């Protein structure tokens, strides 16, 4: 019974963070802030849901399922940071700037890019 | 557990909401970020559906989708950067 | 109403919307991104129909490999136009 409560808590937390990330991706005013809000899905939304599924699988002695699920979760959390960095730099070099930009230190440090 | 399918329905509804950003993103970067998020949400829905139907082989598709979606996003970023 | 039916209906609506977006975009790179989204939704639909071998081929080819080939083709075509 206590395991069921823990699983439900993890799933509700994962759904809440994924919903917050999706709403931020829909309603943020700027391209870079939208990119920041999409990270919410890929870290906390994935992590809590994967933890809930893994707790359910381990409590049923289904170890293959649990280990595979935890591996997928760790992989998504590690690679989403790399993908976000790559697409941010690509967008900057493509010519996209934030709306209320005050200081641009990347342009100051690398003036020929 | 029968309630996992409702979590899967919720994640698919979130992916449907993100299709609006793919439709109306002002630049290509917004569309690429929304497509990456849709890939991740689809992989999570696959994990939840696989534990709902109790088949371990469905997790491999989620792993393939996560790895190759990451590669596609990095390749789009390299194309935007101009040095593919 | 069965919950699997609701899940199937939502995924099929997503496939139709993203396929229409793929055809209707003016920018070619946006069309390629919409094609990748269509591929991932089609992989999810194949899983819902209990066909994992078809789904693993669709997730590898339809979601990533054909957009990669289209991006490389777009790059080559733009290089040829500047010359």
UniProtKB/TrEMBL annotation, chain A:
UniProt xrefs under InterPro entries: PhaG_MnhG_YufB (IPR005133)
GO molecular function: sodium:proton antiporter activity
Membrane-protein topology: Multi-pass membrane protein
Primary location: membrane
Transmembrane segments annotated in the record for this chain: 6-26, 38-59, 65-88
Keywords annotated in UniProt: Membrane, Transmembrane, Transmembrane helix
Family matches, as Pfam families: PhaG_MnhG_YufB (PF03334)
Family: Belongs to the CPA3 antiporters (TC 2.A.63) subunit G family.
Name of the featured protein: Na(+) H(+) antiporter subunit G
Organism listed in the record: Caloramator australicus RC3
Higher taxonomy: Bacteria, Bacillati, Bacillota, Clostridia, Eubacteriales
UniProtKB/TrEMBL annotation, chain B:
This protein's record includes keyword NADP: no
One Gene Ontology cellular component: plasma membrane
GO-annotated molecular function: sodium:proton antiporter activity
Keywords, comma-separated and alphabetical: Cell membrane, Membrane, Transmembrane, Transmembrane helix, Transport
Protein topology in the membrane: Multi-pass membrane protein
Domain of life: Bacteria
Membrane-crossing residue ranges in chain numbering: 6-23, 32-52, 58-80
Subcellular location: Cell membrane
InterPro entries: MrpF/PhaF-like
Cross-referenced Pfam families: MrpF_PhaF (PF04066)
Homology family: Belongs to the CPA3 antiporters (TC 2.A.63) subunit F family.
PANTHER family: NA(+)/H(+) ANTIPORTER SUBUNIT F1, NA(+)_H(+) ANTIPORTER SUBUNIT F
Protein name: Na(+) H(+) antiporter subunit F
Source species of the chain: Caloramator australicus RC3
Taxonomy of the source species: Bacteria, Bacillati, Bacillota, Clostridia, Eubacteriales
TrEMBL record, chain C:
Location within or outside the cell: Cell membrane
Transmembrane region(s): 6-23, 28-48, 54-74
Membrane topology designation: Multi-pass membrane protein
GO cellular component: plasma membrane
Database matches in Pfam families: MbhD
Gene3D superfamilies reported for this sequence: NADH-ubiquinone/plastoquinone oxidoreductase chain 6, subunit NuoJ
InterPro entries with a match to the protein in the record: MrpA_C/MbhD, Nuo/plastoQ_OxRdtase_6_NuoJ
MrpA C-terminal/MbhD domain location: 14-78
Source superkingdom: Bacteria
Swiss-Prot/TrEMBL keywords: Cell membrane, Membrane, Transmembrane, Transmembrane helix
First-listed, main subcellular location of the protein, grouped into a coarse class: membrane
Protein name: MrpA C-terminal/MbhD domain-containing protein
């Amino acid at each position: 019974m206590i395991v069921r409560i823990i699983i439900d808590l993890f799933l509700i937390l994962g759904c809440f963070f994924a919903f917050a990330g999706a709403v931020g991706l829909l309603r943020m005013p700027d391209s870079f802030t939208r990119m920041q809000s999409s990270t919410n899905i890929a870290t906390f939304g994935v992590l809590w849901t994967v933890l809930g599924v893994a707790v359910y699988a381990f409590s049923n002695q289904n170890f293959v399922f649990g280990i595979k699920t935890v591996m997928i979760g760790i992989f998504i959390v590690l690679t989403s940071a790399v993908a976000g960095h790559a697409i941010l730099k690509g967008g900057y070099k493509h010519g996209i700037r934030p709306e209320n930009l005050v200081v641009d230190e990347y342009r100051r440090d690398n003036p020929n890019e | 557990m029968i309630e996992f399918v409702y979590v899967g329905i919720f994640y698919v509804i979130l992916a449907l909401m993100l299709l609006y950003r793919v439709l109306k993103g002002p630049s290509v970067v917004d569309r690429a970020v929304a497509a990456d998020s849709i890939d991740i949400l689809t992989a999570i829905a696959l994990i939840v559906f696989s534990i709902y139907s109790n088949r371990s082989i469905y997790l491999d598709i989620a792993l393939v989708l996560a790895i190759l979606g990451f590669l596609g996003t990095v390749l789009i970023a390299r194309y935007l950067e101009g040095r593919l | 109403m069965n919950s699997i039916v609701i899940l199937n209906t939502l995924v099929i609506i997503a496939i139709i919307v993203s396929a229409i977006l793929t055809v209707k975009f003016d920018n070619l790179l946006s069309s390629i991104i919409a094609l990748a989204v269509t591929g991932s939704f089609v992989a999810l639909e194949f899983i819902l129909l209990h066909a994992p071998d078809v789904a693993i081929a669709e997730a590898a080819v339809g979601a990533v490999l054909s957009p990669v080939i289209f991006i490389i083709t777009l790059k080559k075509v733009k290089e040829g136009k500047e010359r």
